[in-house]
TrEMBL record:
Its main location: membrane. The lineage of its organism: Eukaryota, Rhodophyta, Bangiophyceae, Cyanidiales, Cyanidiaceae. The keyword Transmembrane applies. It is found in: Membrane. The keyword Transmembrane helix applies. InterPro entries: TVP23-like. This is Golgi apparatus membrane protein TVP23 homolog. It comes from Cyanidiococcus yangmingshanensis. Keywords: Membrane, Transmembrane, Transmembrane helix. It is a multi-pass membrane protein.
Length: 211
């Protein structure tokens, strides 16, 4: 390598390091994006290394769970100064509670943009994957896609509501819509009802085809 090439390489490395140093929470930012991308990559590419549906499902769901936990408990609080959690009310209902830090305490625009864009893009990606599964008649994967979609939309909905509450200047608030746990449970109930109706339809068609 010539001296010119070494200087260019050192210059580019220095530029990259300088940009990274501008990000005060670079590790959190990487974890936020890495788990989200890893879950999608596992769903798409893990089949190249194993033919086991169970292994692919477990690994993908594990990565989705890690992503959900990281974004909910770490990324939102550090990158955008928002926090939400579900609380069971005395009457047994679920409600979302929100907290936020002042905008001046969360000043890095790059970290904010990456956080919000990852929240918006993740449900879109899983929706497209679900459509692909339907078109390819790989219906067994729809359950994984559905869980991923519910988790991602729950995060997006909760943080969107939290940001709305923060814009009103309140330190905390109870959501005026479904809590995350209630939303997820209702979606799983709907999915179960769909599978139940599909099973009943198949049984009736099989009985009708018997002589």
């Amino acid at each position: 390598m010539s001296s010119v090439e070494r200087e260019l390489s050192n210059g580019s490395n220095s530029a990259i390091q300088a940009e990274i140093q501008k990000l005060p929470h670079f590790g959190v930012l990487v974890a936020t994006v890495a788990f989200r991308i890893s879950a999608i990559a596992s769903f798409l590419l893990l089949g190249l290394f194993t033919s086991s549906f169970v292994v692919q499902t477990v690994v993908t769901l594990l990565l989705l769970a890690l992503d959900f936990w990281t974004v909910k408990n770490i990324s939102g609080r550090i990158l955008v100064g928002l926090r939400w959690w579900n609380q069971v009310q005395p009457d047994g209902s679920n409600a979302l509670l929100f907290e936020f830090r002042p905008e001046t305490d969360v000043s890095n625009s790059v970290e904010r943009n990456v956080f919000w864009w990852s929240l918006y893009l993740a449900p879109i990606c899983w929706t497209l994957l679900g459509l692909i599964c339907i078109l390819k008649f790989e219906l067994n994967w729809l359950f994984v896609v559905f869980i991923a979609f519910v988790l991602q939309t729950t995060q997006l909905s909760a943080y969107w509501q939290c940001a709305r509450v923060a814009s009103k200047g309140k330190s905390w608030s109870t959501a005026d819509s479904l809590g995350a746990v209630t939303y997820m449970s209702r979606q799983f109930e709907r999915l179960g009802a769909v599978f139940k109706r599909s099973s009943e339809t198949n049984q009736e068609s099989n009985r009708g085809g018997e002589p």
